[in-house]
Design a protein that fits this description.
heterodimer; A: 469 residues; alpha/beta; five-stranded parallel β-sheet; globular; B: alpha/beta; 31% helix
């Protein structure tokens, strides 16, 4: 069933083939799943399983993480005030306890956002297939794993069988050549390619990120890049494991150790695309073309370099595009042709599975150090361990001195499920992944950008090129 | 799951692109169990004004849209969050088919798992469909066996993953299908453990790093 070894194959092929239990006549593959993360939203799937009287097949490969609904304030020693939110967190605890699944719960020092906790704990490894009922599961592909988000019915299927039926996606290689300019980050790479190809530009494809600029990225930056694959419509994103990957994985709590690590590392190092392997699509971007980028509209594809102006629908030839731009500008409360750097903001948010790892917090703090934020804002670290580390480095003092709130970890104001929301009509500079209408709260206006760019916006009170500060 | 071969009923035009799942069902409603009926939350913030009153002119609030079975939207329908609640909202509202020129991958899979057909049509055909519908609901026939839409005199082809088409036509459910392969799965798991011993079973974590 697998591709013969003599055929040149891609990184994706190698991982996929190692997981194919069987292939049906219809071309669908039944895949083995190595890691399955569940969170508060997974209650729909547990309900389905219970309705059918089915047990969880492999509780040892399933991990519960409380992240979407957890409060970022007053977490210890008190019950959660909001009964609906308390119920969500308790349902997750009940579901995992009843099924013998390990939980990174609210009072666990390792708690955090599932896509931050997985890599941090060494649960994320090269060559695995990983799923979670969350679209940003693509994050874990940074290690050379196939990782993708699934819906509740599929979560129930994985719980019941530890497998999933999937049609092999097409493959796209996105190569970023050359070196990124100073002040340009993985977030800017992602927003640039999504703006070029569209929010459905990579639909139906697995993306392998390649090229000098990708190789030069840290693991944390690769996580940011892969995280945003879904915003361009891709099924998943991957980066081939290399020395950077191995160095990150050494001595992680759930990862292999000692001789077993060396054995695993030999296999991991074989996970790379063969020289003659073919992709369905090849996209090349020159790193030098990428500038700090922000979104102006209500889709991640509506993004531009910070030195530009928002579009003028009257000057657009395509009627449908003009209508869409008009609608986006209207929702965002912007004037056609307005300079991006003239857009004043009401608040900032630094957090989310996209940009709340320690390097992100360091980047934001470097800009905020010795400065004040002109607007209120929240900083929510990606995990409780990131929070501890940031405090050990004194980063929290920088945020507090700048006038921002230092909160506990969780999805927080990225998706607004825990009560942290942007008020209607307010404009937020945000390190998150979605500027959708109402995403951060009904009527909220979101501009996506890198942590350093959010910090720069905080300092000036408007969208700002961090390189000028 | 109820099989879906032929669907006759009203189609509602909603000529918007990038209708993401956050808009289809806003996050704040997702604490409810499915039994609450998710139809009431469908496109909530588009259907209601800031005070929470239904907008009478919004297509899904209009009396002439009652009982509609198909929704027609533009490209990248159901992008974004993996929330299956977006599909629950459409299905509980009464829809069995969404027509668009492209769909979010996870949304499509979720749709099929709940008996909702994501029918992909070419951009030009979509425009023709909007010409036919104008700004009001109109009868539309969906023939899943032939992958054709019948809108008045117009016949429009659509595509759907053939595996999903079979699942929808037969009302099949994956879990039942997979359980027939139990032995193959067990053999595979044992072999995987042998070749990649570091992957599973996952060893207990080290003592907590406080």
């Amino acid at each position: 069933m697998t591709t013969p070894d003599t055929q040149p194959s891609t990184l994706f092929d190698k991982v996929w083939n190692a997981h194919e239990i069987l292939r049906g006549d219809d071309g669908q593959s039944l895949l083995w799943i190595d890691r399955h993360f569940v969170h508060e939203g997974s209650f729909h799937a547990f309900d389905k399983l219970r309705d059918r009287g089915l047990p969880v097949a492999r509780p040892d490969l399933t991990f519960g993480v409380a992240d979407h609904y957890v409060p970022t304030l007053r977490r210890t020693g008190e019950r959660i005030g909001d009964p609906a939110i308390r119920n969500m967190v308790e349902q997750l605890t009940d579901n995992v306890e009843r099924n013998g699944i390990a939980l990174f719960g609210l009072d666990d020092p390792r708690q955090g956002i599932v896509h931050v906790v997985g890599p941090e704990q060494g649960l994320t490894q090269p060559g695995l297939i990983m799923v979670c009922g969350d679209s940003h599961t693509a994050t874990h592909g940074a290690f050379g794993a196939i990782a993708f988000g699934i819906g509740a019915s599929e979560v129930a299927h994985v719980l019941a069988t530890q497998t999933l039926w999937q049609t092999r996606p097409k493959q796209m290689r996105l190569t970023v050549t050359g070196d990124l300019a100073p002040g340009v980050t993985a977030k800017d790479i992602a927003l640039t390619w999504i703006a070029r190809l569209g929010a459905d530009g990579a639909r139906g494809h697995a993306i392998e990120y390649a090229g000098e600029a990708i190789r030069a990225l840290s693991m944390e930056a690769r996580l940011t890049l892969c995280n945003l694959s879904i915003e361009g419509g891709a099924r998943c994103g991957l980066v081939a494991p290399d020395e950077t990957t191995l160095a990150y994985l050494r001595d992680r709590p759930f990862g292999p150790r000692g001789a077993e690590f060396e054995r695993a590392a030999r296999y991991w190092s074989s996970l790379r695309t063969d020289l003659d392997a073919r992709f369905d699509r090849d996209v090349v971007i020159e790193a030098a073309e990428i500038a700090p980028t922000v979104t102006w509209g209500v889709s991640p594809e509506e993004a531009l370099p910070i030195d530009r102006q928002v579009p003028d629908p009257a000057a657009m030839e395509d009627g449908e595009k003009a209508r869409q731009a008009r609608d986006s500008l209207d929702y965002m409360g912007l004037t056609p042709g307005q300079k991006l750097t003239e857009i004043a903001i009401d608040r900032v948010f630094i957090g989310s599975c996209t940009n709340a790892r320690i390097e992100d917090l360091r980047a934001a703090a470097a800009v905020l150090k010795g400065r004040r934020s002109r607007v209120p804002g929240l900083v929510s670290p990606g995990s409780s361990l990131v929070k501890l580390q940031a405090e050990a480095e004194g980063l929290h003092q920088v945020f507090l001195a700048a006038g921002l709130e230092w909160r506990a970890s969780g999805c927080s104001m990225c998706v607004g499920m825990n009560g942290d929301q942007v008020a209607s009509g307010e404009r937020c500079a945000s390190t998150t992944n979605r500027n959708f209408k109402g995403r951060q709260g009904p009527g909220a206006r979101t501009h996506l950008m890198s942590p350093a760019m959010v910090a720069a916006a905080a300092v000036t009170g408007r969208l700002t090129d961090v390189r000028a500060l | 799951m109820e099989p879906l071969k032929l669907l006759s009923g009203l189609a509602c035009p909603l000529p918007l692109a990038n209708l993401d799942t956050d808009q289809i069902v806003p996050a704040r409603f997702m604490k409810q169990p499915r039994s609450a009926g998710y139809g009431q939350f469908l496109l909530h913030d588009l259907r209601h004004d800031a005070e929470g009153n239904a907008r009478p002119d919004f297509i899904l609030n209009r009396p002439d849209a009652e009982g509609a079975r198909t929704l027609v939207a533009r490209r990248n329908f159901g992008a974004g969050s993996s929330r299956e609640a977006a599909v629950y909202a459409l299905v509980d509202f009464g829809f069995r088919c969404v027509v668009a020129s492209s769909f979010g991958d996870i949304f499509s899979a979720n749709a099929v798992n709940n008996g909702l057909l994501p029918a992909t049509v070419e951009e030009a055909d979509l425009e023709s469909l909007f010409d036919y519908l104008g700004d009001q609901p109109a009868p539309l026939k969906v023939d899943l066996e032939r992958c054709r839409l019948r809108a008045g005199e117009r016949e429009i082809a659509f595509t759907v993953n053939p595996v999903w088409r079979t699942k929808l036509i037969n009302g099949w459910d994956d879990i039942g299908m997979t359980q027939r392969h139990r032995a193959a799965i067990d053999d595979f798991a044992a072999e995987r453990l042998r070749v990649f011993p570091w992957v599973s079973p996952v060893r207990p974590a080290l003592p907590r790093e406080a």
